[in-house]
Amino acid sequence: MPSQEPLLLRHHRPFLAFWFARIFTASGFQMLTVAIGWNLYQLTGNVLDLGLVGLVEFAPRVLFMLHTGHVADRYDRRKVAAICQSLQALIALALAIGSATDHVTREMIFILAFLLGAARSFEMPTTQALLPSIVPTALFPRAVAAAQSAQQSATIVAPALGACCMRSAASGSMAPRSSCTSLPAP
Hints:
The chain is mainly alpha-helical and 186 residues long. Helices cover 80% and strands 0% of the residues.
């Protein structure tokens, strides 16, 4: 009986592309969430607004709960994910331009947070449903574990990176490492 080479995820190019995309989009989302909170707190100084922006960002998940699964099942998942990720990039761009030109308002941040939540509410089930079409059945359990590990790693690491980037941008520093070690207490 000839020995069959074991299937490894690292040799499966479509999965690697999916995995890296998942890390980068999850990291970008986490960093954007930090930027939204940071901008809102600097603008208003109101702790209640931080809680409200989280609620506004979460509300689309509840509002669109029945529609997101339908969209993920009915339409091309790659296109839906790309549209959602493009919308998130536009939201980040709008926040960056607004911050650079001092045109950020409390209401603008709440609208951007709602749009970000809407994009994420459609992206999450779509990318989860995309995985079975990317990997062979034999690799699926390992692919799910690796994809979830990527998501969790980004959720843990990216907010700290986002805070370092915000601190660097606020101080005009080009050395995020030194900025991370001197973050002020809130």
